[in-house]
């Protein structure tokens, strides 16, 4: 009966609109649910009743369309809006918002995986990272890269994350001490600094007792029990020969003993560190530095003598020779001063010179009046071109103050002379040039130096042993001191930095989660280490996931294959710490849809009441 069809059709409309209202109500109810994805209803009509079939055209008549009456409506399905909701900031480090299509992976009580967009995490008493009691999954197995950093095996299986301990890293809550094994010194040294006054070669800086360093940095080293010791790294520009500049390094500490505690590093003309170089160097023989005023004679036979100083800082020996090279006596000295009683009679008394080092000074005694004939050129006063011939050279200076003649005698016996006001002079040009700078304590006399080709080896990494105090009860520390990160620059000051490993024990002071899901723990000893990495799941069709409550989804046939990825890859989007993804419900749209469903529901009830009136009229005809 047609009226009955109208009733059943209207009822199907009422039921469908009721379902639509149920979905709208659920969306509105979850407007504040973290990571909730809104749903919508789609409808389809029910099979239509054909009253008259369609006919084909004939030679005399046209075709006719079928006459059909629909039998109602049904809910064909619900669809989920998987778009990303807005982000709200949070003060909890465990709150994480997703920016792409990925889902957090949690393990249920049955051991199976479920998926969620709810990033409101927590840590239970056992250290498990959880979401509403479900343990968050990711990666904990790792390897170490060349720099010792943790790299998680993200191609392996995922597993529940525990930030306190796991089978790979062991105890992650209490950080055990790690002894120092390396320290990398970086930054730059000022190429404008002056060379050391006492340097006699690229790797001979001379007396370092009162050395004023050009650059300093402090490093902290740790033994195996976590005891810390302060070590000072000092740098001093040593010498320059050709295109090679050397720097002296020294380690010092009031708490530990270090061996070796010093060495030399070298840089080329571009300021890059080098491990070896072959250079021309000048060994200056007459560098003791005694002037006539610094030598007093008493009862000494008139004649020519040589005063030779040997030894090291604080432990020198002053030896006097006659013109034939026979030793006439010697004396020990800490600073170059002292008296030597000569076997030939008399005493020579020496006052500490203003420019003192080991070497030879020629003196002449006449009636106890002393004349010194050393011109006092030192190692730092001699600069050589790269093509200077090897051999022995003599520099003779004659004249008076302000008007000197400097004569250089070459190894082959040829000579060359220039005039000078202070002892500075240049012989030859280009790569064959020999340049003399004015000595600090200049006078007439003779200085000899020997030019030789020398291959030097410099430190780029120095392996040092740090002996800990006896009461520490720990083994010595073996540390690789790496200078390869250093360079030189034409700046007025130096700037040094260090990257020293090792640390004392510590407990967690704070945590954070990076954009790729790596969980970092900063310990009380200021060491920051990663303790796990959160995984994300992506699906071929995320709308095909099945909602199971607690903000969880499970995989279905419709959702397609599941892939575990690192956040920021595979379309998963990145993670934002200290934030939560809000529901993507649009209240304005929900209210609009609710009004449409309400009116559709009312209209269908009107059809029911109208059909009822028609049936009542029909029944009344019978009575």
List the keywords:
11-stranded antiparallel sheet; 5-stranded mixed sheet; rod-shaped; 2 helices; 623 residues; mainly beta
Helix content percent band = 10-25%
Number of helices: 2
Distance between the ends? 20 Å
What is the number of beta strands? 51
Mean pLDDT: 90
- State the low-pLDDT regions, or none: none
- From the alpha carbons, calculate the radius of gyration and give it in angstroms: 46 Å
Strand content: 35-45%
Q: What's the shape?
A: rod-shaped
Largest sheet: 11 strands, antiparallel
Classification by helices and strands: mainly beta
Characterise the protein shown here.
With 623 residues, the protein is mainly β. Helices cover 10% and strands 45% of the residues. The protein contains two helices and 51 strands. Strands 7, 8, 9, 10, 11, 14, 43, 44, 45, 46 and 49 form an eleven-stranded antiparallel β-sheet that branches. A hairpin with a 5-residue loop joins strand 35 (403-409) and strand 36. The longest helix has 36 residues, at 587-622. The radius of gyration is 46 Å and the shape is rod-shaped. The chain starts with a helix and ends with a helix. The mean pLDDT is 90.
Short description:
With 623 residues, the chain is mainly β.
């Amino acid at each position: 009966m047609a009226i009955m069809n109208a009733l059943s059709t209207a009822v199907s409309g009422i039921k469908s609109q009721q379902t639509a209202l149920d979905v709208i109500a659920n969306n509105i109810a979850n407007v504040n649910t973290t990571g909730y994805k809104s749903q919508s209803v789609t409808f389809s009509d029910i099979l239509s009743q054909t009253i008259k079939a369609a006919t084909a055209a004939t030679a005399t008549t046209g075709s006719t369309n079928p006459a059909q009456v629909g039998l109602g409506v049904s809910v064909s399905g619900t669809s989920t809006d998987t778009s990303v909701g807005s982000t709200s900031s949070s003060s909890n480090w465990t709150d994480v918002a997703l920016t792409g299509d990925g889902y957090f992976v949690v393990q249920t009580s049955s051991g199976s995986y479920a998926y969620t967009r709810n990033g409101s995490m927590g840590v239970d008493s056992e250290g498990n990272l959880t979401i509403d009691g479900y343990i968050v999954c990711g990666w904990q197995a790792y390897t170490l890269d060349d720099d010792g950093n943790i790299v998680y095996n993200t191609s392996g299986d995922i597993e529940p994350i525990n930030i306190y301990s796991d089978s790979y890293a062991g105890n992650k809550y209490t950080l055990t001490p790690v002894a120092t094994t390396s320290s990398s010194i970086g930054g730059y040294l000022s190429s404008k600094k002056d060379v050391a006054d006492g340097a006699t070669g690229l790797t001979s800086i001379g007396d370092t007792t009162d050395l004023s360093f050009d650059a300093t940095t402090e490093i902290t080293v740790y033994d195996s029990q976590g005891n810390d010791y302060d070590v000072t790294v000092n740098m001093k520009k040593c010498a320059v020969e050709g295109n090679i500049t050397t720097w002296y390094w020294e380690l010092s500490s009031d708490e530990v003993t270090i061996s070796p505690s010093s060495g030399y590093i070298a840089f080329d003309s571009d300021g890059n560190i080098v491990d070896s170089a072959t250079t021309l160097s000048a060994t200056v023989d007459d560098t003791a530095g005694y002037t006539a005023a610094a030598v007093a004679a008493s009862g000494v036979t008139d004649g020519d003598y040589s005063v030779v100083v040997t030894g090291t800082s604080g432990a020198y020996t002053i030896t006097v020779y006659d013109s034939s090279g026979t030793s006439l006596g010697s004396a020990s000295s800490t600073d170059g001063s002292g008296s030597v009683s000569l076997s030939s009679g008399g005493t020579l008394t020496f006052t500490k010179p203003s420019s003192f080092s080991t070497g030879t000074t020629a003196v002449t005694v006449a009636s106890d009046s002393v004349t010194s004939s050393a011109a006092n050129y030192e190692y730092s006063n001699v600069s050589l071109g790269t093509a200077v011939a090897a051999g022995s050279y003599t520099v003779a200076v004659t004249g008076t103050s302000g008007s000197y003649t400097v004569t250089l005698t070459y190894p082959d016996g040829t000579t060359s002379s220039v005039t000078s006001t202070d002892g500075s002079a240049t012989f030859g040009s280009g790569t064959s040039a020999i340049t003399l700078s004015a000595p600090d304590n200049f006078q007439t006399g003779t200085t000899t130096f020997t030019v030789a080709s020398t291959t030097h080896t410099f430190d780029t990494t120095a392996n040092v042993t740090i002996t800990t105090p006896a009461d520490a009860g720990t083994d010595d520390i073996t540390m690789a001191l790496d200078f390869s990160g250093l360079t030189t620059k034409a700046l007025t000051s130096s700037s040094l930095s260090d990257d020293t490993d090792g640390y004392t024990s510590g407990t967690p002071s704070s945590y954070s989660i990076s954009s790729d899901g790596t969980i970092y723990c900063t310990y009380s000893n200021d060491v920051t280490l990663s303790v796990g990495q959160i995984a994300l799941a992506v699906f071929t069709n995320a709308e095909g996931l099945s909602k199971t409550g607690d903000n969880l989804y499970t995989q279905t046939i419709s959702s397609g294959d599941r892939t575990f990825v690192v956040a920021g890859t595979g379309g998963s989007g990145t993670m934002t710490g200290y934030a939560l993804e809000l529901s993507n419900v649009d209240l304005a749209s929900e209210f609009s849809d609710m009004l449409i469903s309400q009116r559709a529901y009312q209209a269908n009830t009107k059809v029911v009441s109208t059909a009822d009136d028609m049936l009542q009229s029909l029944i009344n005809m019978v009575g």
